[in-house]
Design goal:
- By secondary structure, this protein is of the alpha/beta class.
- It has two domains: 170 residues, FAD/NAD(P)-binding domain (3-Layer(bba) Sandwich), CATH 3.50.50.60; 127 residues, D-Amino Acid Oxidase, Chain A, domain 2.
- Strands 5-6-4-14-15-16-13-17 form an eight-stranded mixed β-sheet. Strands 8-2-1-12-19-18 form a six-stranded mixed β-sheet, with helices on one face. A three-stranded antiparallel β-sheet has the order 9-10-11, with no helix packed on it.
- Helix 1 runs parallel beside helix 5, helix 1 crosses helix 8 and helix 2 packs across helix 8.
- The chain is globular.
- The protein starts with 10 loop residues before the first strand and ends in an 11-residue tail after the last helix.
- 49% of the residues are buried.
- Bound molecules: flavin-adenine dinucleotide.
- Flavin-adenine dinucleotide binds next to helix 1, strand 13, strand 17 and helix 8.
Length: 369
């Protein structure tokens, strides 16, 4: 177990996808930061995620983030150098008639950014996922370069590469408070002692506000518990299954081992069952057991809230990913590292700053699962 240092150039709170990615990109730029995690790496929302990644968003900024993030997932085995069990098997959205127009607009925008994506007919959707009931499906969208991976493996990949570059990770170390002196971050008080620092990245997931509220900052983030269920092995679907989303109901499924993860917005299987069995009739005969649950960090416009606090100086934050924080990690982590080191940002994500809510500049993301 790493010792808690008495000082660090940059401290990161939170060992999920966001925090470990920031740690890696800081280390890569020659700043070996210290990451503090109160439990184990990945123990927050990251290990509960489906691991889905997609460029199929409505907000142009999310599309840009994801074009770059997918490029990084594709070569994760080279940099940072870890096997994340990449399944680039696509995302298939199934749509009703009145949803087609809005998705056509998004597909046009995604194509403008070079995304391999297309509208599909119900028959084509059935070709991609035999076993679907498409009788009330008017069409869909499919991108073969979307897919899913294993979030905990990505976190370990970033963590190991960052450690090799000199970064420090201290687990079982809870940050209790942020110290401020003369309107600037001066350190953190932890369960293991005090670390002095002038730069702090808060990547504490749904718990980020616990540290910020005492400083007079409250990010508009609400925890929303999401449940997943597991079907018995031996289903008739192809092994290389796209992450398939019934957009009207929120029911989605993807391959997990030799069975399926099936999930939605419902908290109990009996509530999810009608939508699930309607779309995948064979599920009526298949055993399904509870899987796990975790929390989405949801903002009012379903976009991340990330940036630099106006006060105290030296404080940076990233949370509120509204169900897409794993996939945005490779870009958001580098962006946070850029902010903390005052270097040219990988891309301009200032529109996602918390200031947008007070300024009336919310930017609703429509493709939320
Ligand atoms: C069921 C489910 C499915 C999902 N599917 C997807 C998906 O397919 N694709 C996708 O992109 N996203 C998905 N998500 C969302 C994704 O899990 C999150 O957006 C992402 O993991 C957020 O990562 P994070 O690092 O910001 O937060 P977290 O992973 O929550 O990490 C925050 C960490 O901070 C630590 N921490 C908090 N406070 C303190 C403190 N005071 N001191 C020390 N440590 C502290 C916590 O212990 C935790 O480990 C899903 C979420 C759920 C629940």
């Amino acid at each position: 177990m790493a010792e808690l240092p008495s000082s660090a150039d940059v401290v990161i709170v939170g060992g999920g996808m966001t925090g470990t990615s920031a740690l890696y990109y800081l280390a890569r730029s020659g700043v070996p930061a210290t990451l503090l995690e109160r439990d184990l790496l990945s123990s927050g929302s990251t290990s509960k995620a489906a691991g889905g990644f997609r460029a199929q968003f409505s907000d142009e900024l999310n599309i840009k983030i994801m074009v770059e993030a997918i490029r990084r997932f594709e070569r994760f085995d080279e940099e940072p150098g870890a096997d994340i069990d990449l399944k680039q098997w696509g995302y298939l959205f199934l749509l009703k008639e009145d949803q087609l127009g809005s998705f056509e607009e998004s597909v046009a925008l995604q194509k403008d950014h070079g995304v391999d994506v297309r509208m599909v007919s119900p028959a084509e959707a059935l070709d991609i996922v035999p076993g679907l009931n498409v009788e009330d499906v008017a069409g869909g969208t499919f991108s073969p370069t979307d897919g899913y991976a294993t979030p905990a493996a990505a976190v370990q990949g970033y963590a190991m590469a960052a450690r090799n570059l000199g970064a420090t990770i201290v687990e079982d170390c809870e940050v209790h408070a942020i110290d401020v002196a003369a309107s600037r971050v001066s350190g953190v008080v932890t369960s293991r002692g005090v670390v002095s620092t002038s730069k702090l990245i808060c990547a504490g997931g749904i718990w980020t506000n616990d540290l910020l509220v005492p400083l007079g900052i409250e990010l508009p983030v609400t925890p929303e518990q999401r449940f997943v269920f597991l079907s018995e092995p031996g289903d008739p679907l192809p092994h290389r299954l796209p992450l398939t989303v019934d957009y009207s109901t929120g029911f989605y499924f993807h391959r997990e081992g030799n069975g399926l993860v099936i999930a939605g917005r419902e908290t109990a299987m009996e509530d999810l069952a009608p939508a699930a069995v309607h779309r995948l009739p064979f599920l009526a005969e298949t055993g399904v057991r509870p899987g796990w649950s975790g929390f989405y960090a949801v903002t009012p416009d379903h976009n991340a809230v990330l940036g630099r606090a106006s006060e105290p100086e030296g404080l940076f934050y990233a949370t509120g990913f509204s169900g897409h924080g794993f996939m945005q990690g490779p870009v958001v982590g580098e962006y946070l590292a850029n902010l903390a080191t005052d270097t040219e940002p990988i891309m301009d994500l200032s529109a996602f700053s918390a200031d947008r809510f007070a300024a009336g500049n919310q930017r609703p993301e429509l493709r939320v699962i």
